[in-house]
Design goal:
Length: 508
């Protein structure tokens, strides 16, 4: 691919580029010859993507009319891939307002096409009976269709791909529960679609003729129940046949908590997924093929899509995950400037050790932290903290890592997110567990004046109110065990790691 400045194809704006679909769509558009501009609230999150040097990135938010207008200037196609999928009661209004702003600004900018990825809705179910999230997605589609800009609304059900929330839910439910009592929605008929076919359809939709302004149902070639999907997943993954018993008493709320306990997908994300499974979601037409023809062998069948996703997971080639986008309701403020920060208290716990290993070996340990490697201290304490976070609706400790060895800005890492990384020197993580305040964890690999390797670690906490103060002082007695042990074990792992290899996992 050539540099963005040398491209001559139409310019596309991609919103939601830090999300699961957006992060995969950008390189597909680039490969198809388009120039790409990404609108992101935090452009730094896109800095380390493989395609970062090929696309233009601008700062902005879809709820800010000015930044949307600036981002749309000079664009012919605009992809709308954002949703306020939080649990707050005002997310529908946020979605509605953002869609109106986007449509109005796109029309004013002379955009020739909007492409929107929404959700498949059953035709015979009144809007009031749909889940709030599915209802909001349908409303966003209507708003964009009425914007005066020719719009393509693609309505998909379950998307199967490595790292997608739907795939992770299916995968972990099936792998972890050989016998399970399930909600009655496992008998709902669904038309899943592989993520590669979704991306192919999104790219192809950019070239639709101007008279097309409508919604299209998109799906794979098979209609399955969720029960059939779990059993076929088990067969593909080489697992024994699963025993599944459906009961009618699990409400969507209870179902989401059940999914949240068993899978890495937290209840707040699982709920809109499970709510959308209450009704049959099957395509009523395949008109999209008139404008985006299916190549031979496409769309992929369920088994092929699952096999491909599993292979990507096993080969550590998961380019984006459901957790690529920031978790709703968690802190997103950058680290305050310290020590002269005027915003209030900023508590710190600092550790420093000299390490009898090269800086490169120490850095491999630091960058490999979390996920299967754990946190190098008191595993039970970390596990308990993760479970407590899940119980109060947080992300818990099981999101793991996108890549076993490499991190990039914006990656989720268990209940942290990578806020900054300076390869070979600094890893800064921002906490996304439920806390009465904001928290960060910094790890440094440094060289001292006398040429020795130094590991420096700093935990920071900005409390919110009295509860935040009480929280800090209640946990500070355990810092010597948790953070002190963490620093010592990281140093020891670096010292024991063979040259040129990744560091060994900590003892559990």
């Amino acid at each position: 691919m050539s540099d963005e400045k040398t491209r001559t194809g139409p310019r596309c704006l991609v919103t939601g580029a830090t999300g699961y679909i957006g992060g995969r769509l950008v390189p597909e558009l680039l490969a198809a010859g388009y120039r790409v501009r990404c609108l992101a609230r935090s452009p730094a999150k896109l800095r380390d993507y493989p395609w970062a040097g090929e696309a233009e990135v601008v700062r902005g938010d879809v709820t800010d009319a000015g930044s949307v207008a600036d981002a749309l200037r000079g664009c012919e196609v605009a992809y709308y891939l954002v949703h306020a999928i939080g649990s707050g009661g005002d997310f529908e209004e946020t979605d509605r307002r953002a869609a109106r702003i986007f449509g109005e600004r796109a029309r004013a900018a002379g955009v020739r096409r909007i492409v929107y990825l929404g959700g498949l809705t059953p035709p015979d179910v009144p809007a009031r009976e749909l889940s709030p999230h599915l209802r909001s997605r349908a409303e966003v589609g209507r708003i964009l269709l009425e914007s005066g800009v020719p719009t393509t609304v693609l309505r998909a059900a379950v998307i199967i791909g490595s790292g997608s929330a739907s795939f992770e839910m299916l995968r972990y439910l099936t792998e972890r529960l050989p016998v399970m009592v399930t909600p009655s929605w496992v008998h709902t008929r669904i038309q899943p679609m592989g993520v590669g076919d979704v991306l192919r359809t999104l790219v192809g939709s950019a070239a639709m003729p101007p008279e097309v302004n409508r919604a299209f149902d998109i799906g794979g070639p098979e209609v399955l129940t969720y029960l059939e999907m779990m059993r076929r997943y088990a067969a593909i993954a080489g697992l024994p046949r699963r025993l599944i018993f459906a009961v009618p008493v699990l409400t969507p709320r209870l179902s989401s908590h059940w999914v949240g306990l068993v899978t890495p997908v937290p209840a707040s994300i699982a709920r809109p997924l499970t709510e959308s499974l209450r009704h049959e979601v099957v395509c009523r037409e395949h008109d999209i093929a008139r404008y985006v023809p299916d190549p031979p062998g496409r769309p992929l069948g369920f088994d092929a899509a699952v096999s491909l996703a599993l292979q990507r997971v096993r080969d550590a080639q998961v380019t984006t995950r459901w957790s690529s986008a920031s978790y709703p309701g968690t802190a997103s403020d950058p680290l305050p400037t310290d020590p002269d920060w005027a915003g209030g208290s900023l508590y710190t716990d600092e550790r420093e050790l000299t390490v009898d290993a090269s800086p490169a070996k120490l850095w491999r340990v630091v960058e490999g932290i979390g996920g299967d490697n754990g946190w190098y201290s008191f595993p039970l304490a970390w596990a308990v903290r993760g479970w407590l976070d899940r119980l109060v609706g947080g992300v818990g400790l099981r999101r793991g890592r996108r890549d076993a060895n490499r991190l990039r800005v914006g990656d989720s890492l268990d209940f942290w997110r990578v806020e900054e990384i300076e390869p070979g020197r600094l890893l800064r993580l921002r906490a996304e567990m439920r806390l009465p305040g904001l928290a960060w964890l910094e790890m440094y690999a440094e060289v001292t004046d006398d040429g020795r390797t130094r590991y420096r670690q700093r935990a920071l906490f900005h409390p919110h109110g009295l509860l935040g103060q009480l929280y800090w002082w209640s946990v500070s007695p355990f810092h010597a065990v948790v953070f002190g042990g963490m620093a010592r074990n990281i140093a020891r792992a670096a010292e024991n790691a063979p040259a040129g290899t990744t560091a060994p996992a900590p003892a559990r």
